[in-house]
User: What shape does this take?
Amino acid sequence: MQDFEFKVPQSIEFGVGSLKKLPGILKDNKSDHVFLISDEGLAKLGVVKKIQDIVEAGGLECTVYLGVVPNPTVDNVNEATQKYKESGATSIVAIGGGSAMDVAKTTGVLAAYGGKITDYEGLQKVPGPIVPIIAVPTTAGTGSEVSASAVITDEARNYKMSVISHEMLPKYAILDPDMIMTAPASIAAACGIDALIHAIEAYVSTSASPFTDAMAEKAMALIGPNLRPFVANRQDEDAACAMMVGSTFAGMSFAWAKLGDVHALSHPLSAYFHVVHGVANAILLPTILEFNMNTDRGRYEKIYNYIRTAAKPATNFEPEMLIAEVKKLRDALGMPTTLSEVGVTEDKFQEMAEDAMKSPNIATNPRSTNIKDVIELYKKAL
Assistant: This one.
């Protein structure tokens, strides 16, 4: 067993209606003015107003920023940081999925230490604690509320860069299943399979440890039997609760074990072709599982038994059975199966492969991967 370390430096509140605890959390942190970061879509659904009302009913001041865009950019972060400084707020509440939380984390960095967000690209370059963040996920998928990373698109390079530091972990996470029970089926599917892939990639990562294994296995045990019913009926409260907690466990797992080739290859797909992150991951997963197959030492069978619909564990397992089961799950969720279906073309494969090789997730994939491998994987998934 290799050496490892872990810590869980956050406070996490879970429960239907747990948002009502937000004012108390802010007061405990001596913050009387909060900066809400979210997007126009959630504002139109009334989610932002609901949280704003809870904050203000607690006697606290609130400034709202709704400029978050999918695949947030350097300009997005700069704008949010400027608005935060102008507001006089002393804490941030991030409302949404990964995009809102990525903007919140990087805003917290720049507000505390200045400079450009590109100065902090890579591993552990944030020098210390950032602005306190309370994360309120509205999807069961990203795990960003408990992850130490943010992915920001640098449009000058047409590149999705990663800022990774445990100083960026939100101080609090509020997991209220009410927040995910109105999501459209397509979003529930894309986010849910993303959470499952977080757990799978962390589980087979070369940086996996007994701690991350425990988190990943629990995530798969919760997500595996609940993803299909949750996508079919987001009002299924038991499925919603399982998906929300499972996503958080998966986030804890990959925060320490990192990920693999699925995520390394998916980020360029979003940067070059604006493919939804969870969709890109779902398309790539069977291809990457097949590529990594010869490195398996029994973990594929465990993954298979977590996600299959049959009640009893499989007998006479072969790794190909997991690949077939993943495809079956993807079909059941109504997701695209090839890159060509989502508008990807081969002419950008060389550039995308070069960007994928810059991802820290390449280093923790269970099979060594070079740029020729990446190009072939893209071609196979096309």
Remarks:
- Residues 11-179 form a domain with the Rossmann fold fold (CATH 3.40.50.1970).
